[in-house]
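Make up an example, fold above all:
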Amino acid sequence: MNEHRADSWLELQELLFADTWNDRLGLFRSSFAYRGCSDAASDLRSGIVRQGGDTSLERQLMRAFRKYAAADSVPHDTAWDWLALGQHHGLPTRLLDWTYSPYVALHFATENLDRYDRDGTVWCIDYARTHALLPARLRQALDAEGADVFTTELLAGAAPALADLERCEEGEPFALFVEPPSFDARIVNQYALFSVVSRAGIGLDTWVAEHPRLVRRVVIPAELKWEVRDKLDQANVTERVLFPGLDGMSRWLGRYYRPRSRVSG
């Protein structure tokens, strides 16, 4: 895996937008998914892996979630729609949050003022090259749709049950990216997508270790975080925008007006 440490705001831009030129389109169109973490020591384990990776626990969680959620909570009654909805609302699942936007990732790398005493990071994974490694059945589903990333509906067509994903393997685990439905303005404004590994009990770290050339990590030094945060605020990349509503506005105001003397680092 390539790891780069940004020593300035300008270098950070160069690192995050590197390799985004698309020759076929003649445009800058990134094929990277980005994930920002406030602590560079953070790993890529999903919520269900953090709870032991037990698929029976996942089934219990999903059964209870579907029982208590409103019947019309998802646009399509598929296992992947329900899983995406659960992930979106904090349920431990096999999914992991990503975004198409490097600036949204930077927001999540700098939103926690209590972690300004440590480096942050932005993970970057090339989803187009990741999907080139998919089993034939799943590659064909993407190709037939002319898509680069799965939707929950498209994924459900190829693997209706969660366990079907592992059955698609051709000898080794694989990873893919799926766009959730537009459940609300939050998921739209965050330009969100999720990663999933074919086996629920395996963290994305394991897959990354086997495919380091498809991944890079940009480290944001602790001493650079304030400049990044101030410039994101100026660019209107804030909780008020990414979490529309009074809760997001309150989070933004509480952070924005917090005295710097009370911030770690």
Summary: The longest strand covers residues 120-126.
